[in-house]
Predict the 3D structure of the following.
Amino acid sequence: MEHWCDGSCRGPDSLKVRTMAKYDDQWKGQDEQAATGRRKALSMIADPLLSMVHPLTGKVVVDLGIGTGSLAFRALEFSPPKTMIGIDFSSPGLCVARGISRHPRFAEYDVELVLADLEKIPLRNRTADVVLSQATINLLPDKCTAMREIARIARPGAKIAISDAFRTTRSGGDESWEQCIAGAMTVNEFSNLALSSGLIITGQADLTQQVRALVSGKKWDWPEFLQHNMDYRVFLLTKG
Ligand SMILES: C[S@@+](CC[C@H](N)C(=O)[O-])C[C@H]1O[C@@H](n2cnc3c(N)ncnc32)[C@H](O)[C@@H]1O
């Protein structure tokens, strides 16, 4: 086990303040139409993730770091669950997501949007049949607490699909935290973190080429992903 669960994975709260300011700003500048465009573009990585947890019918699904809902609303298009709970600490993001949830296309579905910190999820133990998270885990200063929270809210046997950028080596760096780079783990660190949180990895897919294509084609404004030669993976986990 490398250093992610020895206490040093607990970053300073100032990282959270910076992250919240960045996404508040980003989502304030993104109306529902732009959010729909983002959802369409990112379906290239959302669809492989969703295919791992399909079907969602009758399930309680929680999307951690929902933002404006590119993954959650794609899930509703793909296979509508019983309830979709989206959690984020950015009010502007949730505001856009709330607007989209009222569109005729989604209005009939049960979508709950919760303003909260992912290191303290306001859901009861064993609430979720499925937990999703896309491009968010790297932003959490205290990944150990967040992963334990995921294990706590998941029902035994739940499917948990987490995607994000991964470092190809563990080296120091002063890259921006808010760009999902400085807080990125190696695959080995993530595997150890999952295990120590009581979660078992049951599958994974490498989406690096898809993300490279999105960034190169200017459909995802994330030049740091290419600059730092990151991998992008989705992991499927479960709770025993
Ligand atoms: C890169 S965006 C991804 C949004 C969405 N999952 C998507 O794929 O479009 C990361 C999201 O995580 C949220 N976030 C970051 N740290 C968080 C925390 N500690 N608690 C709650 N939300 C957080 C941000 O506000 C932002 O909306």
